[in-house]
Amino acid sequence: MSAVPQPAPAVTVRAPAKVNLHLGVGPLRADGFHPLDTVYQAVSLYDDVTVTDARAWSVGVTPVGGVDVNDVPLDDTNIAVRAGRALVAHHGTDRCARIEVAKGIPVAGGMAGGSADAAATLVALDRLWDLGTSDDDLLALAAGLGSDVPFALLGGTAHGTGRGEVVEPVDDDGTWWWVVVPDDGGLSTPAVYAAFDDLGGGGGSIGAGAVRAALGTHDAGELGAALRNDLEEAALHLRPGLVATRDALRGAGAVTLLSGSGPTYLGLARDHEAAHRVRQALLDQGLTAVVATGPVAGAHVVTHG
Ligand SMILES: C[C@@](CO)(OP(=O)(O)O)[C@H](O)COP(=O)(O)OP(=O)(O)OC[C@H]1O[C@@H](n2ccc(N)nc2=O)[C@H](O)[C@@H]1O
Ligand SMILES: Nc1ncnc2c1ncn2[C@@H]1O[C@H](COP(=O)(O)OP(=O)(O)O)[C@@H](O)[C@H]1O
């Protein structure tokens, strides 16, 4: 009897996009970062990352649901490859992997898609190679890759401090309905922070208390009134055309919020039906819009075989 060739072992990990329900930004620090007081929420747009053992590092990206992946690098600068290299360096091994990203999170949209890929790659390779990396070590490796990466591991809803990398879970047992409106082309996160500085930002940011209190009410009206993003003015300064997107969402009955450093705009809707009505109103105006809910889980294994 001849042996049936077995496919190479592969692990697929799913990681979510994030929104910042509150993004309070303080004055520029000496290390080039800004202190944050933020509340992250993981929402139901996902990247799925599949890893297999290989002789050299490589990465491929496939769009899901019409996401434009043209600006995602396919070399060693891809944050998923950087995550893989950081993990093997941590363990002192010299293994390599092929990384395949199925990308459903808008690129450079302020929804932390690259951070999701980094978090997913850490978890996937840890499982593929049975490395047994501790949660604390995964969080530390994540923080070394980017300010948003630890949250992508955690998921749910969390308070972020430091430069955003120090994360603590926050109680949030509601289901919140978002209409996500990506823009054509991304916005550079450093450019938005620089515009924030140029506009004299960081002097008067308030804390995340209002959002945290509103989460407990389960009332989208209460949460909508508490949403805040200190980078919104800077992003609108760099991309004035976003005002039309914001106004279209408002006209359709949603409370609006810029997602992180933008340019994706978010509309918070009262419930599932309202979210789909808002989405349809935007589609009727020729905009792209998808419905997402939060909070959802952080990076987690979906297949292992
Ligand atoms: C704005 C936020 C809000 O959650 O998200 P995005 O909109 O990018 O998804 C984050 O602060 C983005 O975090 P992330 O995208 O991981 O940024 P990093 O790679 O750590 O940093 C990229 C650059 O952004 C600026 N930066 C980032 C974080 C921070 N607290 N202060 C900063 O000034 C710095 O110029 C830094 O060099
Ligand atoms: N795996 C990746 N996915 C997306 N972007 C990546 C990735 N690796 C590197 N990048 C670079 O990071 C930039 C920011 O991407 P992304 O994380 O999607 O946005 P944001 O920081 O706005 O949340 C992109 O413009 C791209 O050049």
From TrEMBL:
Protein name: 4-diphosphocytidyl-2-C-methyl-D-erythritol kinase
HAMAP family (UniProt xref): IspE (MF_00061)
Record's keyword terms, sorted: ATP-binding, Isoprene biosynthesis, Kinase, Nucleotide-binding, Transferase
Reactions accelerated catalytically: 4-CDP-2-C-methyl-D-erythritol + ATP = 4-CDP-2-C-methyl-D-erythritol 2-phosphate + ADP + H(+)
Known function: Catalyzes the phosphorylation of the position 2 hydroxy group of 4-diphosphocytidyl-2C-methyl-D-erythritol.
InterPro entries: GHMP_kinase_C_dom, GHMP_kinase_C_sf, GHMP_kinase_N_dom, IspE, Ribosomal_Su5_D2-typ_SF, Ribsml_uS5_D2-typ_fold_subgr
Gene transcribed to yield this protein: ispE
Similarity comment: family membership: Belongs to the GHMP kinase family. IspE subfamily.
SUPFAM superfamilies: GHMP Kinase, C-terminal domain, Ribosomal protein S5 domain 2-like
GO MF term set: 4-(cytidine 5'-diphospho)-2-C-methyl-D-erythritol kinase activity
Domain (GHMP kinase N-terminal) ranges: 78-156
GHMP kinase C-terminal domain segment(s): 213-283
UniProt keyword ATP-binding present: yes
Pathway connected to this protein: Isoprenoid biosynthesis; isopentenyl diphosphate biosynthesis via DXP pathway; isopentenyl diphosphate from 1-deoxy-D-xylulose 5-phosphate: step 3/6
